[in-house]
């Protein structure tokens, strides 16, 4: 894959990952009885649900800020790992796909990003 194609693929994956996390975060702010019931069933409050939503929105925005990107990816990966743990603990294996796909997208964004050029140090 040439450099231009890799860059296009990376940008598309970045946009998809950001939209995925942004949508997920925004949904947690909309009054949805089913989501509130799910969080309660998992032992979490409505406040915790909104906090996770805020972190997902912040992470989605952070993906577009180069200096914050690695931290945004790390934070979103931790949230998605928590989602997987929660679904497995609750026996909700059918809900693992969304979190797993988000993890794959975030990992690809991290792995395919253009590495920073190291400064040349002359002796």
Q: Strand fraction band?
A: under 5%
User: How far do the termini sit from each other?
Assistant: 36 Å
What's the SSE pattern?
A: HHHHH
Largest sheet: none
Count every helix, treating DSSP H or I runs of 4 or more residues as helices. Answer: 5
Structure description:
Helix content is 72%, strand content 0%. With 123 residues, it is mainly α. It has one domain (3-112). α3 packs antiparallel against α4 (69-89).
Topology (SSEs and partners):
Blueprint: H1 3-27, H2 33-41, H3 46-62, H4 69-89, H5 96-112
Helix pairs in contact: 1-3, 1-5, 3-4, 4-5
Summarize the structure.
By secondary structure, the chain is mainly alpha-helical. The protein is 72% helix and 0% strand.
Notable traits:
mainly alpha, 123 residues
């Amino acid at each position: 894959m040439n450099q231009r194609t890799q860059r296009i693929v990376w940008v598309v994956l970045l946009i998809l990952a950001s939209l995925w996390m942004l949508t997920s975060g925004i949904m947690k702010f909309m009054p949805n009885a089913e989501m509130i019931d799910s969080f309660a069933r998992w032992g979490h409050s409505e406040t915790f649900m909104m906090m996770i939503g805020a972190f997902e929105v912040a992470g989605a925005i952070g993906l577009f800020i180069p200096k914050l990107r690695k931290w945004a990816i790390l934070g979103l990966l931790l949230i998605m790992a928590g989602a997987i743990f929660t679904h497995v603990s609750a026996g909700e294996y059918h809900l693992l796909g969304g979190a797993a796909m988000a993890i794959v997208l975030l990992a690809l964004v991290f792995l395919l990003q253009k590495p920073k050029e190291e400064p040349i140090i002359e002796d």
